[in-house]
Design brief:
Length: 405
């Protein structure tokens, strides 16, 4: 019969399975995920879930009944160990062999470990799943000092959440500035200023070389003269796509599992969606691997449309968000290779402004901080391929609509 197996049970899987049913897929749908929980929203893990405003039930993507109603079989706490493309089966680690007609890989990404001694000590944490955060929350109840290694979005969100709970927090960033990989210097300066205003200490150009147990506490040895004492250490230095299953099955791999505009891998019966995919972005004209919820859900919908014979190619504008303290950052587009950035508003003393990124005088992305109109306008302009006038963008008195070239 027409059976679909989806490997991984998170954002991409939840969307693919439900969209398939909605699009009229009549065969069986089985989702196999190695975490014990139903698919949940991962972004709150470093935000409201860490700071205690939300429980696991609050962050489930859908309640259990919605999968039951849609007749989606959720096999949770089960890992897939191998794919056999010749027999069209998958082998689970508990010894089951399951046949598929179509297979979907939504295996996502896993944390990158910090290659220093002591990263595996008790009270040293990484942050990717609910178990990680429950353990961090437990320790944070009694901890006074936290050291966070890595000044990317997840490290900074974690710093904000722990600071709100009254901990003393220090962020160590190995690069010359926080958020270096993903933003312009003006954004790094802004986030550094706000974190310092909120009482978080940010140390840049500092490399953690070892974590030591020091009686009841920990000590992070660093490249600056000071060793940092800590009751808990959280490491957030990025993720690695889970490509191994696909690779062992002989599928094409780039910086992730390579897929076409319909999210098919090099085997047309096998699809992939989410953080694990290396896909072509039509708006930017290049291959990318994105770590974002909108990408995972959009690709899930693309798969469902293709499998049910109503193919809609993937051509969405990438977008992201990050919440820290009272700052709501919304990002539209990819700013990676910008050569100019224009600030609209006041980033040096205020807490609401937008950074518009340009390459060769073409508008390519916007970072909007507490500025939802700039985000919406930027997203719309990028989607429609509109260019913006730099001089007009810089002038807050000129209406956004009038900045279009
Ligand atoms: P994942 O969520 O990585 O899920 C993959 C699942 O597959 C995992 O459960 C994994 O254990 C399982 N799996 C892997 N291999 C196997 C196997 N062989 N057998 C069975 N199961 C397997 N994105 C945003 O857009 N905005 C944010 O603000 C934001 N904040 C974030 C904060 C944190 C703390 C984290 C960790 C991520 C954040 N992200 C954010 C990124 C976002 O969570 C990811 O883009 C999203 O989770 C990707 O979904 P996915 O379904 O592709 O994969």
């Amino acid at each position: 019969s027409d059976s679909v197996i989806i490997i991984g049970a998170s954002h991409a899987a939840a969307q693919t399975s439900v969209s398939l049913r909605q699009a009229g897929w009549a065969g069986s749908i089985t989702v196999i995920g190695d975490e014990d929980v139903l698919p949940y929203h991962r972004p709150p893990l470093s935000k409201d879930f860490l700071s205690g405003q939300k429980s696991i039930n609050d962050i489930l993507i859908r309640p259990a009944e919605s999968y039951e109603t849609a007749n989606i079989d959720m096999k949770l706490g089960v890992r897939v160990g191998a794919i056999n493309r010749k027999d069209k089966t998958v082998l689970t680690d508990d010894g089951e062999t399951l046949p598929y007609e179509k297979l979907v890989l939504t295996t996502g990404a896993r944390i990158r470990r910090l290659p220093v001694p002591g990263e595996d000590l008790e009270n040293v944490f990484y942050l990717r799943d609910t178990d990680d955060v429950l353990a961090i929350k437990d320790k944070a109840k009694t901890a006074k000092r936290a050291v966070i290694i890595g000044g990317g979005y997840i490290g900074l969100e974690t710093a904000a959440s722990l600071r709100k709970q009254g901990l003393e927090v220090t962020v160590l960033e190995a690069m010359p500035r926080i958020l270096q990989r993903v933003t312009a210097p003006v954004m790094s300066d802004f986030y550094k200023r706000v974190h310092m205003e909120e009482g978080v200490d940010i140390l840049e150009n500092v490399i953690a070389s070892e974590i030591k147990k020091d009686g009841d506490t920990l000590s992070v040895l660093t490249s600056c003269d000071k060793d940092m004492p800590a009751d808990l250490v959280i490491i957030g230095i990025g993720v690695i796509p889970n490509i191994e299953l696909a690779q062992a099955a002989g599928l094409d791999i780039g910086n992730g599992i390579e897929v076409n505009e319909f999210c098919q891998t090099s085997d047309p019966e096998i699809y992939a969606a989410g953080d694990v995919t290396w896909h072509y972005n039509t708006i930017y004209g290049r291959h990318v691997r994105l770590e974002s919820v909108p990408n995972a859900t959009e690709q899930g919908k693309v798969i469902a449309s293709h499998m049910t014979g109503n193919a809609k190619p993937y051509n969405s504008l990438p977008w992201f968000w990050s919440d820290q303290f009272d700052l709501k950052l919304q990002i539209a587009g990819l700013s990676t290779d910008f050569d100019d950035v224009i600030i609209r508003g006041d980033s040096s003393t205020g807490r609401s402004f937008a950074a518009y990124y340009f390459k060769d005088d073409t508008f390519i992305a916007v970072d909007a901080v507490n500025a939802p109109r700039d985000f919406m306008f930027g997203k719309m302009s990028l989607t429609k391929g509109l260019n913006l006038d730099k001089t007009k963008i810089a002038d807050i008195d000129i209406d956004l609509k009038l900045t279009v070239v």
